[in-house]
Write a sequence for this structure.
């Protein structure tokens, strides 16, 4: 369960690999210490998941193996917050809310 949370916080991509030598691609990725999980065989290639930062390195490996990679779906915190980048007020409001909650929780409240 903890691994799923970490992967979600870092962001991961679901991708397909078509053509070339998929076995050689997997071996090269493991040799370069890139984590790939949820590997599934497709009709003309494979489908797998990888951390979004490692996907860039995987594209270089796929070129060496004569394969093409294509992102099927993006998952995780970085991708879900991308649409809120231009909303500065929302981010500022979240920080103010957190600050008020922190400040008010440092006191013991008693109601008579």
């Amino acid at each position: 369960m903890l691994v799923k949370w970490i992967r979600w916080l870092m962001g991961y991509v679901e991708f397909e690999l078509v053509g070339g030598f998929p076995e050689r691609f997997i071996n090269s990725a493991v040799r370069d210490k890139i984590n790939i999980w949820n590997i599934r065989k497709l009709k003309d290639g494979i489908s797998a998941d990888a951390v979004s930062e490692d996907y860039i390195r995987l594209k270089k490996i796929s070129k060496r193996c004569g394969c093409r990679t294509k992102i099927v779906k993006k998952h995780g915190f970085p991708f879900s917050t991308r649409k809120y980048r231009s909303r500065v007020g929302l981010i500022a409001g979240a920080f103010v809310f957190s600050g008020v909650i922190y400040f008010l929780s440092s006191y013991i409240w008693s109601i008579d």
Remarks:
- The chain is about 50% helix and 25% strand.
- The first strand starts at residue 12 and ends at 18.
- The radius of gyration is 21 Å.
- Residues 88-105 form the longest helix (18 residues).
